[in-house]
Amino acid sequence: MAYEAKTKVTAVDVDAFIAGSPKPADGAVLCALMRRVSGIEPKMWGPTIVGFGSRKYDLAGGKQGDMLMMGFSPRKASLVLYIAHAEGWADRLARLGKHGTGKSCLYINKLADVDAGVLDELVTAAWKARA
User: Fold this and answer.
1) For the chain, how far is it from start to end, CA to CA, in angstroms?
2) How many whole angstroms separate alpha carbon 54 and alpha carbon 83?
3) Distance between alpha carbon 116 and the CA centroid of its chain, in Å?
4) Is 50 among the domain residues?
5) How many structural domains comprise the chain?
6) Which of 7, 29, 53, 97 could lock onto 69 through a cystine, CB 3.0 to 4.6 A?
7) Starting from the edge strand earliest in sequence, which strands make up the sheet with 106-108, in order?
C-alpha cells in the first residue's frame, strides 16, 4: 500500500477559509505577512493549514513527500505557525511576547500578545532558511 500524506494541497479558497476561521482578523494579518515575505500566493494544505511554498522531505524506503515551507492555522485556541527554527530563533522568541512552542510549531493566542516587528523577523528568517 502506497503512503499518502494527510497534509497536502487542496483547492479550498484560502481567503474564504480565513474569513470563516475562529481568528479571521489575525489570520488575515498573518497571511498578508507571509505573502509579503515569501512573495508567493498561499494554498490550503489539508482542511486547516494555510501554506506557502513546498519542499521535499525524505520518507522510509527512499521515497519523498511534499510539505509546506511555512504556514499557519488560525485555530480557536491559538494561532499555530509552522515556521523553520532559523538562526537566532531563541533570541527572537525571548523578545516576541506571550507564546508557546512545540516540536515544529509556534503558538500565539492572539497577535496583540506579541511584538509585530519580532514576528516579522521570525517569519522572514524562517523563510530565508527554507528558500
Assistant:
1) 32
2) 12
3) 16
4) yes
5) 1
6) 53
7) 43-45, 49-58, 64-74, 79-82, 106-108, 100-101
State the residue range of the domain holding 75.
Answer: 14-130
- In angstroms, the CA 117 to CA 10 distance is 31
Backbone angles phi, psi at 79, to 5 degrees: -85, 130
Task: Give the 3-state secondary structure of the chain.
Answer: CCCCCCCCECCCCHHHHHHCCCCHHHHHHHHHHHHHHHCCCCEEECCCEEEEEEEEEECHHHCEEEEEEEEEEECCCCEEEECCCCCCHHHHHHHHECCEECCCCEEECCHHHECHHHHHHHHHHHHHHHC
Domain membership of residue 1 (yes or no) is no
Rounded to two decimals, what is the model's pTM? Answer: 0.88
Residue 7 lies in a domain: no
d(CA 84, CA 71): 10
Report the pLDDT averaged over residues 19-35: 97
Q: Give the model confidence (pLDDT) of 39-81 as tens digits.
A: 999 999 999 999 999 877 666 777 777 788 999 999 999 999 9
